[in-house]
Amino acid sequence: MSSVRSKDGTMIAYTKTGDGPPVILINGAMGTGSDPAFVELAERLSLHFSAINYDRRGRGQSGDTAPYAVDREIEDIEALIDANGGSAYVYGISSGAALALEAAAKLPTKVKKLALYEPPYIVDSSHAPLPADYVQHLDELIATGRRGDAVEYFMSAAVGIPAEHIAPMKASPMWPGLEAVAHTISYDGRIMGDKMSGKPFPPQQWATATMPVLVINGGAGEPFMGVSGDALATLLPNAQRLTMEGQNHGVESSALAPVLIDFFTN
Question: What is the total count of domains within the chain?
């Protein structure tokens, strides 16, 4: 485990696997660099790249500094890039993909190529929008010490897991780990902003993200991910589109790694 100091002084912990050009891997809500799927993906990519697998601020071995702002997370990514050669390929999944896109738009000379897997944008009526007070309610739950309730609210309101399926999750060994990073769920809510409200993207959104971008969704996933993926690929200046048949939001590393290797190397 290595670490880098972000612009605001926060220490960001990461592991580096492999010796090739750097690829920054950005996990989604409540994910950490030690998640088995991300560790496996890093190992597969390490045959061609230096896979930079990190704990986003507030999670795992990384620090956290109040108040939170999306720009601080972008600075974390920039610090990782600067510590590993000054430019990098970037991959993000779910809300981590949304963060990756925000970073690429702010750092267009440092992000060489960008791969996005199912950023959960809601751009039309194909999926119900999130509640308008989603982030506010999460903040209130965390402020009153109701970390488990915050995780449950995220699972139901954002992910759409039925209540009868959440109950067994709460009794499982994974639940304490989810509660440990519950305060970061609202961070991802702020990254998504109003882009889960059912409104189309503004015409010039992310116009500075001119690097090659691969927008991916899973063919076995929720249809709204394909709708928003199409809209995103149409909007971005230099994007291509891919649907990975048989995959859902929990994409298999064995299927994803060859796609990323091909995109980043060609």
Answer: 2
| Mean per-residue pLDDT of the chain | 97
Residue 206 lies in a domain: yes
End-to-end CA distance of the chain: 30
Q: Which structural domain range is residue 165 located in? A: 134-192
Residue 129 in domain: no
As a whole number of angstroms, the distance between CA 68 and CA 79 comes to: 17
Phi, psi dihedral angles at 162 (to 5 degrees)? -60, 150
Strand order through the sheet with 22-26: 2-5, 11-17, 50-54, 22-26, 88-93, 111-117, 213-218, 239-244
d(C-alpha 52, C-alpha 84), whole Å: 9
The answer to whether residues 94 and 118 touch, using CB atoms and an 8 Å cutoff, is yes
pTM above 0.85, yes or no: yes
Element (H, E) at 15: strand 11-17
Are 23 and 264 in contact, with CB atoms under 8 Å apart?
Answer: yes
Are 101 and 54 in the same domain? Answer: yes
Question: Contact 224/249 with Cβ under 8 angstroms?
Answer: no
- When mean pLDDT is compared across 21-35, 79-93, 160-174, the lowest value belongs to 160-174
- Over residues 108-131, the pLDDT tens digits come to 999 999 999 999 999 999 999 999
